[in-house]
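S.,

Sequence below, as promised.
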Amino acid sequence: MIKLAAFLSGAALLILELMGVRLLTPAFGSSMIVYSAVIAVFLAAMAIGYFVGGYLGDRAPYRSTLALALAVGAVLLAACTPVAPPVAEAFAAARFGGYWAPALAAFAVFTLPSAVLAFAPPIAIRLEMKDVAHSGSVSGRIYAISTFGSIVGTLSVPFLITLMPVSIGLYCVAGALVVYAALLLLITEARVV
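The prediction came back faster than expected:
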């Protein structure tokens, strides 16, 4: 279950990233500037999320910490759909930031959800860690699983976009994360020593 959390967070991050471009496109177009802005914001937010997730994993090494991170990330991910278009339009209409307007809009909309979703891998590593002698293999395994989730998420975006509007796809991902977080909470709580 813990490894699946890393997989799902990786998938959700890349689905949100690619669909995030689609959410900003009506205001800014689909230029390389928009793609670069979204990718840069996600990378920065993920770095912050990994750092904070590591801190949380050390301070509260519980399945419920992981479940809460996924649930909050899912709620924030779902909020992107109604928030992104008006925020992007506001930045575009205000002509605030010029070249940087897509980055500022992406920062305003996607930083918090992507950072919170990035909490999952370091918390999962802490929960899977049985002894420090295997820390390298445990962390490598969790990040490989998370990256594989990102690949699956990336490849699923064309499927999601052709089947349903961007907003419904994001809500489906958010719903799946919330259900998984609830399942984690139902499993016996085990503190990692």
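Helices lie at 2-28, 32-59, 63-94, 101-117, 120-128, 135-163, 166-186.

Coffee later?
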